[in-house]
Amino acid sequence: QVQLVESGGGLVQAGGSLRLSCAASGRTFNSYTMGWFRQAPGKEREFVAGISRSGDWTSYSASVKGRFTISRDNAKNMAYLQMNSLKPEDTAVYYCAADYGYLIGTGPDEYDYWGQGTQVTVSS
Hints:
Helices cover 0% and strands 48% of the residues. With 124 residues, it is an all-beta fold. The protein starts with a strand and ends with a strand. The model has no long low-confidence stretch (mean pLDDT 96).
C-alpha cells in the first residue's frame, strides 16, 4: 500500500509556472506507475500526465503536452509535475495517483491510490 500527499498548488497568473510535488510513503515506490490527474468544478477527472516505474517513459494529454513535465525521484519517493505557460483553463484540483500496473494508464479507474489533491488557480 502507498499513501500520497500533494503540495505546491496555489494562485498564479496566466503564463506563469508552478511545480507540484507528490510525496509517497512505503518502500516500493518504484513498483508503481505514477500519474497526475485534474478535476475542474463540474467536470470529470481527467488525465494530465503519467510516468513509468523507472521514469524512462512518459505520457501527456494533448492539452498540456509541451507545457507540463512529469518526473520522479525513486530514491526520494517523490513525483513531480512542472507546469509552465499556465492558462486559466488549467485551473483545477490536481491529484497524484499510483498504479501497481506496468503500463501508463490514462483512466482514473486504472489507478489504485490517490492523494487528497492540491488546488491550482490560474488568473487571466
